[in-house]
Design brief:
By secondary structure, this protein is mainly alpha-helical. It has 2 domains: 2-141, no CATH class; 152-279, no CATH class. Helices cover 61% and strands 3% of the residues. It has 10 helices and 2 strands; from the N terminus they run βαααααβααααα. It has a two-stranded antiparallel sheet.
Length: 280
Amino acid sequence: MTKVLVRPSMPKEIAKYDRKEFEENSFQKSKKPKNKIEHQRMQAAKKSELILREANDSASWDKIFENTLQGEINFKTEDDVAQQIKKHFEEMTEGAAEDCVLTTNFGKWAKAAQGFWFDKCGEEKGQIKHAMGELPEFKIKPVVKAKRGDLRDMVLPGGGDIRTRLWASMSVKVNSLAKWQKSGVFETSASKDAMRRLEQFALEEGELGEHTWEDISDNEALQMKVEISFLLDSFERKATYDTTDLQELLKTITHRALKKRQNESHNSVRRQFGKKHLST
């Protein structure tokens, strides 16, 4: 069994609200204006509409916030998580956790925001089972059973396997380093991470990396490692390096590996179908 954090309740249509699909959008959907005067009139009407919409939202928020009860934070004695939070807070501030005004006020704001979202989405607040602005809750769930067999043989969505995904990932990192070189961007956390992963990949570190190199010939492996070495060296010297050959090689290997895994997957399905057909 394992503990899983309980998510606060959210409206079912919250994604539509984020995309502003609940609001009237007549201005954008209207036909193209015939002349400049009509265009100016439509712009003025849209501005008035946006001002009115903002005023309505503000009034709705004020009403919901005013009607939201400002309850006290309940540190349940039987809740280990709540007690640990309380202990940590009091050790840091040397004050009672129940007396923290900032926490109480923020809790009220979070509850009001949750109610506002439900109101904007046209859904009942009675559907709120897990309120925001409360201490985090956890529920006990059974641990997911581990997949049996070799992880490298697992077929990913769209075909291919873990090794195919690794080849594609290295191709993305090479392309990113090439773009950063042209832009003169060298000292970033993203570039350092890409260099570190490419270096690990070239050194065949890890069981997965070791087996991934089995997909290519010795000549391709030699060219790959030399090209990656030159690229990393040039990046450290803040110089540019032509990665055209390296990118083409990675593209070819990735495409070939993907086709190979897809064919293996199709053949496996055919064999299983054949066995099932014969057994019937």
